[in-house]
Design goal:
The protein has 8 helices and 7 strands, in the order ββαααβββαβααβαα. It is α/β, with parallel strands linked by helices and about 170 residues long.
């Protein structure tokens, strides 16, 4: 079956405030996330489960609860891309990427550390953002259900550096 290409604009804003200490970047919202109008909307994506478990909190259900979890722990959330041609939700099908203005956000929070949720996000950041702002990215394993080789316990261990960056004594 031929791939159906469709130029998509990122449909929602970043979650961020001046107290953010880390920025977690995905590539681009999935079909389910775009339908839900918020990040990591696919029910099998483990992003929210990983964050809740790292911080010893209940799994957030609503968008408000998710935003509260992020802000409470000084985490900013966005995607590397503002627009791209994509078929479905597969990062491997991304063509004609247009980067978000992440350098401006990083300039407003100069000590913020950057993490990528998956290798595709890290690669796109390194190609389109890092040369502009000079802030390196730390690649974490993807929480996507497509990354089934990574069990939840392995993800929790691999995502520990994010927790270390937002602890009060770090």
């Amino acid at each position: 079956m031929p791939i159906t290409w469709k130029q998509i604009q990122h449909p929602f804003a970043p979650v961020w405030d001046e107290s953010s200490r880390v920025l977690v970047l995905g590539t681009f919202p999935s079909v389910q996330s775009r339908a839900n109008a918020f990040y990591y909307g696919h029910p099998q994506n483990r992003f929210w489960r990983v964050l809740a478990m790292l911080f010893g909190q209940a799994l957030p259900e609503s968008i408000d609860q998710k935003v509260t979890l992020l802000k409470q722990h000084h985490i900013a959330l966005w995607d590397v891309l503002a627009a791209c041609d994509i078929s479905g939700s597969a990062d491997a099908t991304i063509r004609n990427p247009v980067a978000n203005d992440i350098p401006t956000l990083l300039a407003r929070t100069p000590d913020m550390r950057v993490f990528a949720n998956g290798q595709a996000a890290a690669m796109l950041y390194r190609r389109h953002i890092e040369p502009v702002c000079g802030v390196p990215v730390h690649a974490l394993p993807s929480t996507s259900p497509a990354n089934a080789a990574w069990t939840l316990p392995r993800l929790l261990q691999a995502w520990q550096p994010l927790l270390d960056c937002v602890q009060p004594d770090s």
